[in-house]
């Protein structure tokens, strides 16, 4: 880790390439990457996201909608990112909540299950990921002031 903590700008400010590089170095130096990966994998499995992802990939391949790995990755990444698609909102409990359709599909709003042919990263996976990364960066990074919290 670095000897002097890196100070991050407020969340509304973009990170410079230099700051990104310093964050990556801090995470690599502290051996935090495997911990972050393990926490995200656990939450993705526990929420059913991995199962939904596999099912969606099979659906896309069997229907002929995707014929190559590149096409499959493109469609799946587009769905997960919420590019130009609606999602059904819901809690992270894994049940079928009757949430309404959100116009600006954002990760962290769904259950992780395939909802009308769309994939969403569950809210609890996003929250756990943020928590693990923040915890890994404590001690080597000083976070800028948060507004509205």
Descriptive report:
The protein is mostly helical. The chain is built from five helices and four strands; from the N terminus they run E-H-H-H-H-E-E-H-E. Mean pLDDT is 76; it is low at 84-105.
Q: Helix and strand layout, with pairings?
A:
Elements: E1 6-7, H1 17-29, H2 33-47, H3 49-63, H4 69-81, E2 87-88, E3 101-102, H5 123-137, E4 141-142
Parallel strand pairs: 1-4
Antiparallel strand pairs: 2-3
Could you give a short description of this structure?
The protein contains 5 helices and 4 strands.
Q: What tags apply to this protein structure?
A:
about 150 residues; mainly alpha; two-stranded parallel ribbon; two-stranded antiparallel sheet; about 50% helix; about 5% strand
Q: For the terminal residues, how far apart are their CA atoms?
A: 28 Å
Count of runs of 4 or more consecutive helical residues: 5
Report the strand count: 4
Strand content: 5-15%
Order of helices and strands: EHHHHEEHE
């Amino acid at each position: 880790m670095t000897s002097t903590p890196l100070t991050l700008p407020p969340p509304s400010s973009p990170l410079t390439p230099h700051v990104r590089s310093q964050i990556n170095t801090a995470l690599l130096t502290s051996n935090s990457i495997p911990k972050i990966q393990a926490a995200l994998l656990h939450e993705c499995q526990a929420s059913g996201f991995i199962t939904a992802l596999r099912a969606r990939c099979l659906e896309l391949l069997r229907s002929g909608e995707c014929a190559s790995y590149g096409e499959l990755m493109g469609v799946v990444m587009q769905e997960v990112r919420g590019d130009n698609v609606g999602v059904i909102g819901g809690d992270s409990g894994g049940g079928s909540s009757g949430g309404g359709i959100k116009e600006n599909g954002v990760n962290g709003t769904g259950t992780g299950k395939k909802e009308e042919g769309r994939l969403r990263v569950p809210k609890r996976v996003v929250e756990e990921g943020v928590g693990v990364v923040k915890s890994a960066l404590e001690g080597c990074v000083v976070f800028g002031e948060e507004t509205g919290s």
